[in-house]
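Hi support team,

I submitted a single chain yesterday and got back a structure, but I'm not sure I'm reading the token output correctly. Could someone confirm the output below corresponds to the sequence I sent? I've pasted both exactly as they appear in my results page.

Thanks,
R.
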Amino acid sequence: MEQEKQPKDEEVRGEEGAKDPEARSLPEQNENVGANKESDEGGSAQQPGNNDDLVKKKVICAISYLFGILFFLPLAVYPNDDFAKFHANQSLVILLTAVIGGVVFGILSIIPVVGIVFTVLVYVFEVLILVLCILGIVSAAKLEKKELPVLGKIKIIK
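Hi R., thanks for writing in. Yes, this is the structure output for that exact sequence:
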């Protein structure tokens, strides 16, 4: 009788495994995990670390555009990297353009008659600076060294 109960218990376990999708998928997942480990050992094990480095580089370059005063950040983290130098330079050029333009428009907006016109131009200028920052962030996110319109030819950091 005990022998008869054992097959029934196995059948019950099999039925429970069939009803429980997690119980059935676990062995399959374990097989796939083993296969992935074998394929990762072949040479793609370096790729995730390299991918993390690229993501880090993208984020750091994007931060340099987002917060202009941090233009030096890509240079500090990647001192000999051309991509980091390029985006640090672009960010610095945008920062200097924004500061110089803000000072010039600020002084010109003090003039009584034409001050209103220059006050409006300050807002247009700041929107253009914002657009340049967005273009720089997109370029960094795509891992491209695409020069910005108008200001892209200026090289301060070589």
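A quick pointer for reading it: Residues 1-44 form one domain. Let us know if anything else looks off.

Best,
Support desk
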